[in-house]
Amino acid sequence: MGAVNLAQDKIRVVMADDHQMFLDGLSRLLSGNDRLFVDGTCADGNSLIRLVSDKKPDVAIIDISMPGPGPAGILEQIDRLAQDTKTLALTMHLEPSFARELLALGMNGYVVKEAAFDELIEAILTVARGDQYLCRTLVEAMSEETPLTDRERECLAGAARGQTAKMIAIDLDITERTVRFHFANACRKMGVQRVTEAVAAAFKLRLLST
User: Fold this and answer.
1) Tell me: the pLDDT tens digits for 83-112?
2) Which residues pair with 56 in a beta bridge?
3) What is the bridge-based pairing of β-strands 133-134 and 109-112?
4) What's the predicted TM-score (pTM) here?
5) Distance CA 163, CA 157 (A)
6) 73-102: b (≥16 Cβ within 10 Å) or e
7) What Rg value do the Cα atoms of the chain yield, rounded?
8) Model confidence over 41-93: pLDDT tens digits?
9) CB atoms within 10 A of CB 18
10) Which three-class secondary structure state does DSSP give residue 69?
11) Integer Cα distance of 99 and 102 in angstroms
C-alpha cells in the first residue's frame, strides 16, 4: 500500500462516528491543522464504505461501535475498494484484547477518545506514512497484560530470526515438539493461523522487539 509524502501533500482524512456533536467538533479541530484536509464525514459503517470508495482518502478515522457492518466488514471493504487508505480506530474501548483483534484484522492504528488531540494528530501522521500507531494509554495497558508466556515469546523471537523449530529447540534445550506446542499456543492467543503471522502480530503489539 502507498504512503503519503508528508513534506509535499496534505493528508486527506475522512471520519465516521455516530455521535454527531463529537464528529462535528473533531472535524473542525482537524480542519484547523494545516497538514490535514477533512474530505468528508459520516455516521455509520455503510456510509463510511461509500465515502472511502468515492474519496479514496489517505486516512479513514473510524469509530468502531457505529451502526452498520462491524470492524471486520468495514476493513475488508476498505481494503478491496481503496487499498492505499490507512485506517485509524478512534474509540472508547481500552481493552488490549479488543485492540489486538482489530490489529489482527488489519487496522493501522488505534487511539482512545480520552487521548490528547496532539496524540491524535501524531497517530494520523504516523499511519499516513505507512507505520502503525498505538496510543500511549493502550501500550501501557498492554504492557500490564502480556498474553504470551516467556517461552512462547522466546520461540517466536527465534522464528523472527529465521530459525527453524529444530534450531530453536537446540538453543532453548527443549524438544522440537515442545517448540511446536508453544508456536500453536502463541498462534491461538494471537488469533492467527501461521507462525509468521504470530511473529508479525507480536511485533505490532510490541510483545517482541527488534
Assistant:
1) 999 999 999 998 888 888 898 889 999 999
2) none
3) parallel
4) 0.72
5) 9
6) ebbebbeeebeebbbbbbbebbebebbbeb
7) 19
8) 999 999 999 999 999 999 999 998 899 898 999 999 999 999 999 999 999 99
9) 16
10) coil
11) 5
Cell of 143: 504492557
Question: Residue 104 carries which side chain, given as an amino acid letter?
Answer: A
- What number of residues does the chain have? 210
d(CA 181, CA 130) in angstroms, rounded, equals 34
CB 32 within 8 A of CB 121: no
**CA-to-CA distance for 129 and 145, rounded, in angstroms?**
29
Q: How far apart are CA 115 and CA 167, in angstroms?
A: 43
Residue 47 C-alpha cell reads as: 456510509
Angle between helix 195-204 and helix 176-190 axes, rounded to 10 deg: 60
- Domains of the chain (ranges; CATH) run 11-142 (3.40.50.2300), 150-204 (1.10.10.10)
Secondary structure (DSSP) of 148-191: S-HHHHHHHHHHHTT--HHHHHHHHTS-HHHHHHHHHHHHHHHT
Residues paired with 88 in a beta bridge: 61, 109
